[in-house]
Amino acid sequence: MSDDVILQTVPLGLHWPTIDPFLFCAHHDDQYPSGNEQLGPDASLEGRNIGMDFEGIDGWRMYHGSVVPGFPQHPHRGFETITYVREGICDHSDSLGAIARFGEGDVQWLTAGAGIVHSEMMPLRNQSAPNPLELFQIWLNLPAADKMSNPYFTMLWSNQIPKVRHTNADGRTTEVVIIAGSFGETPPLSPPPNSWASKGAADVAVWHLHLDPGTSLQLPAAATAETVRTLYVFDGDGVQIGETHLECDTGSVLRSTDATTLHSSGGADCLVLQGRPIGEPIAQQGPFVMNDEAGLRQTFIDYQRTGFGGWPWPVDGPVHAADRQRFALHPDGRLEEPV
After folding, report:
1. Rounded CA gap, 130 and 142, in Å?
2. Domain of 105?
3. May I ask which residue range the UniProt record assigns to the signal sequence (predicted)?
4. How many C-beta atoms surround the C-beta of residue 158 within 10 A?
5. 157 CB contacts (<8 Å, ≥6 apart)?
6. 87 and 142 assigned to the same domain
7. Mean pLDDT in runs of 10 for the chain (339 residues)?
8. How far apart are alpha carbons 192 and 161 in whole angstroms?
9. Beta carbons within 10 angstroms of residue 157's beta carbon
C-alpha cells in the first residue's frame, strides 16, 4: 500500500519544499531565552550575523531583527502569507496602518495582492523564563486574475479554528487543526475573499495533525484527482503508512485520490498542505511573485514609486507593549480581539 501512496520523500530543514499552488513554507522553531526591557533576548548577541542571523546559535535566531527577533518591514505582491503561530507571539504592522498581535495557536492569513509592506516581529515578553517560539509561514500563490486584488488580512483565532478530536478506549487522542479545507464533514473558517483557497474547485487544505503514541488517523480522499497533497512530519517519532515509516523531519508527496491511514507508535505532529495547482507561469524575485518578467518589472517600478502605501511607523520593526493582549486593528479601524 505505502508504495502506491507515497510518491516522493525529502528531508526537511528550516525551509520546506512545496508544490503549486504553494510557493514556500518555513518552520521557525526557536528556544528563545528570557526577554529584556526592549522585548529582545536577555543574552549576548556577540558572534551573530545581526541583520541576517539564521544559524541557530544556542537554539535561536534573530533573523533580520537587531534588537527584537523577526522580520522588519518588507514588501510583498502577488501571493498570500499564512502564518500559523503554534507557540509564542508575533507582532504585525503594515503599510495600510493596520497592527496586530497573535499567537498561541492563532493564524493570520494575509492577501498581499497588489502590494503591501509589513513587519513580523517576535517579542520576548517574559523576563523571568524562556520564550519558546514555533511558527509556520506558508506562501500560497494567487492566480493572475487575483494578483492585483486589494491587500487584506483575516485573523483565525485559536479558539475559533475548527478542530477534529478523537479519543480511543485507552484515552489516547488524535487532533486535526483545520486552518484551511474541510476535513471530512468539518468545514474550515472562511479564507480571505480573493484567496485561491476561496475557490471551491481549488481543494486547498492546511491541516495540523497531532497523534498521541499508539494512535492512527485517516486522511480523507481529496476532492479532485488533480489535487497535490504533501505531508510534513515535523515533531515526534514519525508516522507509518502501510509498511513505510516516515521519520521526523521528512516531507512526502502522497497520492491524494484515496483515504490514507497514518499510524504513530511513538506520537507525531505533521502538517498537510494540499491543493489543485494553479498551473500558471511563475516569475518570482524575492517577495514579488507575478506571471512573467514584465509583471516583475512593473512591480519594482510601482514599489519604487508608491512604496505600496509607504511605511507609517517610526521604526522598521515595531513591537507592541509587553502587556498588550492578542488583537487586530484593521485598516478600516475595526478592532478585533479573540473571545
Report:
1. 38
2. 22-44+58-161
3. none
4. 18
5. 102, 106, 326, 338, 339
6. yes
7. 82 97 98 98 97 97 98 98 98 98 98 98 98 98 98 97 95 97 97 96 97 98 97 98 97 96 98 98 98 98 97 98 97 95
8. 15
9. 18
